Amino acid sequence: xxxxxxxxxxxxxxxxxxxxxxxxxxxxxxxxxxxxxxxxxxxxxxxxxxxxxxxxxxxxxxxxxxxxxxxxxxxxxxxxxxxxxxxxxxxxxxxxxxxxxxxxxxxxxxxxxxxxxxxxxxxxxxxxxxxxxxxxxxxxxxxxxxxxxxxxxxxxxxxxxxxxxxxxxxxxxxxxxxxxxxxxxxxxxxxxxxxxxxxxxxxxxxxxxxxxxxxxxxxxxxxxxxxxxxxxxxxxxxxxxxxxxxxxxxxxxxxxxxxxxxxxxxxxxxxxxxxxx
Length: 277
Description:
The chain is an alpha/beta fold. It has helices spanning about 15-25, 50-55, 55-60, 80-85, 125-135, 155-160, 175-185, 215-230, 245-255; strands spanning about 5-10, 30-35, 40-45, 65-75, 90, 95-100, 110-115, 145-150, 165-170, 195, 205-215, 230-240, 260-265, 270-275. It has two domains: about 5-75, Alpha-Beta Plaits (2-Layer Sandwich), CATH 3.30.70.100; about 125-275, Rossmann fold (3-Layer(aba) Sandwich), CATH 3.40.50.150. The chain is built from nine helices and 14 strands.
């Protein structure tokens, strides 16, 4: 399929780039490449609407200067495209995330192969890194785990490797659903149950841990559904939002009997670890 490449120059760069990634994710952009002066982002051509870009909060914010252009990228070997820039990542010296063309290293606890194609979730973004780091620290042995908005399925795969009893991965997008299926095959984690859809699938079930790295609006809308299927004393890990959204999310969590036990920030992105009382 054809894609639209959105190329932006951003001033100030670091904070502006993170905000732009978050806002583009909300309107359907699937893949992001950092450049020296800004960002390249990609969306399926059938979903592209230039008016959506003009409505972005950061575009209208006078604190940022953003110039951008768009062009159509004809169908190509996307695997070859991202291979040029994809590098392995270590998380806490315990988890090594790599593509299948990278050499395997020794003396690593969790070796995960991810072929992201156009999916979000290689561990390079701050939110994915924070979620992986926290998942490494909690015990999911013999537990039921849900990876909500799974993207590449990296969190589900890590949960399976950490001896979870049952792992389910859900994403609303077809490309993420297919990519997760491919990645669980690459990691011999075929016991993971993968579903395409949203929070409407969370009925007649329960989980001991729910991992949701999505965005603020979806988390606020669906948090009650997560709480309904989370076991008492269960873990809810949330990310995909900025530190300025913390109080808004905690207010909603409090209404649902969810209590903050830990939070961590990385470049203004935040991860919340909540427990169901």
